[in-house]
Amino acid sequence: MDEAKITSDKYLAKKLRKLYFEKNRRWYKALKLRGLTTIVFVEFEVHQNRFTDIRACPAMPPLNSRDYIFEPADLIPPVGSQYLLHLFEHPEDYDRERTAYLRMPKKRGRLDAGVGYGISLVEGFLADRVWAFIVIIFVVGSLAFAVTWTCVKQDIQGAFGVAAWICTLAALTTGWVQTRLD
After folding, report:
1. Position 175 pLDDT exceeds 90
2. Which of 94, 120, 145, 165 could bond 42 through an S-S bridge, CB–CB 3.0 to 4.6 Å?
3. In which domain, by residue range, is 92 found?
4. Residue 116 sits in the same domain as residue 158
């Protein structure tokens, strides 16, 4: 897909997905507890060695900037991060949309060094994967305890009683942690 063909939100999202998955194409990415959590507009600085540092978030170029092409919006950021994240995950839903494409700053020419504007793909912990991991650990751990206790002590009722207590404790702890984080 050529940059010149990016004329809508759908093709913008497809290009972003392609670049993101080229950088993150390891076989074990489905097992990672971290992943893409949000997309934000940023001001960044590119240094001579090509190191890039984010200076401000959210940020957009000044309205009178001659270096960037974009449709001005009333708000900063001009497009919400949830919209951008949904666009990234489901580009097929935005066949004829041009909201993000028009409001996104597009640099005239290449930025070799200095201050620029664009978007940042922010990674963080994925709550559903973290909780699934915790549940699997407690279920497998209590099952292993129950089987070991049954084999050693020959007491199946006591083994699964303690295993059920461990799973109940895990559910209560998980609920408590969720209420503290919200």
Report:
1. no
2. 120
3. 3-125
4. no
Q: Rounded to an integer, what is the distance from CA 52 to the centroid of its chain? A: 20
Q: What is the pTM of this model?
A: 0.72
What is the DSSP secondary-structure string of the chain? --GGG--SHHHHHHHHHHHHHHHT--GGGGG-SEEEEEEEEEEEEE-TTS-EEEEESS----TT-SSEE----SSSSSS-HHHHHHHHH-GGG-SS--HHHHHS-EESS---SEEEEEEEEEEEE-HHHHHHHHHHHHHHHHHHHHHHHHHHH--HHHHHHHHHHHHHHHHHHHHHHHHHH-
pLDDT at 1: 44
Inform me whether the pLDDT recorded for 2 exceeds 60. Answer: no
